[in-house]
Amino acid sequence: MELNWDNLDTLEAFKKLLSLKGQVSLKEVLNAERAAGFCAEGAAGLHYNYAAKQVNGQILSVMQEAADEAQLTEKFKALYEGAVINTGEKRKVLHHLLRGQLGKDVLYETPSGTKNARGFYEEQRLAVADFARKVHAGKILNEKGETFTAVVQIGIGGSDLGPRAICLALEEWARVQGAQKMDAHFISNVDPDDADRVINVLIRDISRTLFILVSKSGTTQETLANELLVKDFLKKAGLDASKHMIAVTSETSPLANNPDYLASFYIDDFIGGRYSSTSAVGGAVISLAFGPDVFEAFLKGAHAQDKNACEKQIGKNTAMLDALIGVYERNVQGYPVTAILPYSQALSRFPAHLQQADMESNGKSVNRAGGPINYATGPVIFGEPGTNGQHSFYQLLHQGTDTIPLQFIGFLQSQSGTDITVDGSTSQKKLCANLAAQIAAFALGKDDENPAKVFTGERPSSLIYAERLTPETLGALLAHYENKIMFQGFLWNINSFDQEGVQLGKILTKKVLAGQSEGALKVFASLLGV
Questions:
Q1: What is the pLDDT of residues 391-402, one digit of tens each?
Q2: Mean pLDDT confidence for 466-472
Q3: Are 328 and 405 in contact (CB under 8 A)?
Q4: Are the CB atoms for 330 and 336 separated by under 8 Å?
Q5: Is residue 360 annotated as a catalytic residue, yes or no?
Q6: What percent of the chain has pLDDT over 70?
Q7: Helix H segments across 81-116?
Q8: Which of 15, 139, 235, 506 is an active site residue?
Q9: 3-class SS of residue 116
Q10: Which residue, 58, 47, 99, is CA-closest to 316?
Q11: Which residues 6+ apart lie within 8 Å of 369 measured at CB?
């Protein structure tokens, strides 16, 4: 089937959507029947409830027309079967193959011959699993013959945000399940205080710490600077850095098969950094911290959700439905920001990961062919866990002059199971009661004689929920958002898989450090002592 890569504003279905703006008042339509019925089922126990979104049957019907006209499932199939979807870098986009195969084999040529992408990714997953099991079994030891008790990932961007969010999300679950193998830490910022803080936390056990250096190119400035800082500290502690470091990189990088590392594990150019959590980038630290079985369960949930994303009917495809509603809010209703609000402390860094995943993917102003576009693309993403956020920025969300769509995430049960009843309810019940109350308050509002106490309502939100946050559920949740971002990129006809916007700052930084800056840049650098 031939794919048509057309701008959003050329789609007939989008023109219909524009005419439907303002049809739905949440104050008028949100009732018990709608709250129960406007819900789609994802994988691993995930549910996507969109009852508090400003959509109705007619709008949803036209959204289905848009999905069909834009060939969303067909484009997804082309992606996971190896088409060159990343037009800017002329690369395939294969992160779905990290967790399972959805279609035919993806083969490509390398200097050493034909490679099967899925086979390569499985080979690396198994190599990571074998290494982690040997570390846990005491078959890989430090110079003193001691076991390793902590692991530190050195990386930035996608090498940090996703893996860090996932490790934090599973920490309490692993403790309760007896799956905690090693303490996980992260160094990302080139700010030396970041590395110094982590090293000083581990100062007494630094000889029993394993470091993972993550850089696909092997040339990432911040990561290599932190590597040298850590190596200097290890040397001063009388330790051999090569006995304490492993690398996750590409097969062509200077880190590959390097004797400075205990082991090297590989990814390829078809895995973008922000989509690399299900590769060795996330797999090494997750497997070392919690065991390879936990990482496999995480992949299982992600693959199951990927299968859900193949559904052609939007009512059965949570990521596609979420994507279409997001485009409706961005391009029809004109909302420029979306808040991600997990009512789970375990997901405290998940919004930061989604901020990169979404804004680096869809913050584009030309289409995938480099042509102009005349409509808004990716929204600004921010968020914090509830209920903390209620005591921070919810004031603006409720009564500010901008309407900001909200995406709530919640779980019926806590990870720990430890709780206490106060005033007739447990803490977990209080958490969920707050979440339910916020959905209703944002949608329905409240009148009052005092204008300062009026809540206008009509503030749309969705709810993704499950029974409990587990590795499998977390994998499905990650895949839901990755696929949502992908579908929105298809609708906007942009390349969601390059990131040219990060390059200019890097170039100018090199000029400053080389003493080649001039004009305003030179002045700013001098003000900062460079």
A1: 999 999 999 999
A2: 98
A3: no
A4: yes
A5: yes
A6: 100
A7: none
A8: 506
A9: strand
A10: 47
A11: 5, 87
Structure confidence at residue 257 as a pLDDT band (50, 70, 90): confident
506 is catalytic: yes
Which pLDDT band holds residue 112 (cuts at 50, 70, 90)? confident
Distance (Å, whole) CA 341 – CA 438? 11
Strand pairing partners for 40? 48
3-state secondary structure of 48: strand
Known active-site residue 364 = no
Q: What's the start-to-end Cα distance of the chain, in Å?
A: 56
Check residue 510 and give its pLDDT: 93
Which H or E run includes 247? strand 245-249
Which residue matches tokens 């390097």? 258
Cβ atoms within 10 Å, residue 380: 13
220 falls in which pLDDT band (50, 70, 90)? confident
Half-sphere exposure of 191 (CA within 13 A, CB side): 5
- Phi, psi of 384, deg, nearest 5: -150, 160
Rounded mean pLDDT of 43-62?
Answer: 98
Distant-in-sequence, close-in-space partners of 309: CB < 8 Å, separation ≥ 6: 76, 317, 319, 320, 479, 483, 487
**Tens digits of per-residue pLDDT, 114-163?**
999 999 999 999 999 999 999 999 999 998 899 999 999 999 999 999 99
The string of DSSP letters for 358-423 reads: HHHHH--SB-TTS-B--S--SPEEE---TTGGGGTTHHHHHHSSS---EEEEEESS-SS----EET
| Interacting residues of 281 by C-beta distance below 8 A, sequence separation 6+ | 155, 158, 159, 162, 163, 214, 248, 267, 271, 273
CA–CA dist 169, 159 (Å, integer): 16
pLDDT computed for residue 53 by the predictor: 98
Q: For residue 507, give Cα distances in angstroms to 266, 467, 512.
A: 27, 47, 9
Measured in degrees and rounded to the nearest 5, phi and psi for residue 214 equal -120, 115
Quickly count: other Cβ atoms within 10 Å of residue 367's Cβ. 19
Q: Pick from 96, 115, 99, 95: which is nearest to 107 by CA?
A: 115
Residue whose C-alpha is closest to residue 43's, from 99, 112, 88: 99
Contact 488, 77 (CB under 8 A): no
Sign of the alpha-carbon torsion through 101, 103, 108, 112:
positive
Active-site entry in 222, 360, 384, 472: 360
**How far is C-alpha 137 from the chain's CA centre?**
32
Q: Which of 28, 391, 449, 518 is catalytic?
A: 391
> DSSP string covering 328-359, please?
IIIIIS---EEEEEES-GGGTTHHHHHHHHHH
Using a 10 angstrom Cβ sphere, with 0-12 exposed, 13-18 middle and 19 or more buried, the burial of residue 299 is buried
Amino acid type, 39: C
Spatial distance between the Cα atoms of 130 and 151, rounded to a whole number of angstroms: 16
Q: For residue 355, give the 3-state DSSP assignment.
A: helix
- Give the pairing type, strands 337-342 and 380-382: parallel
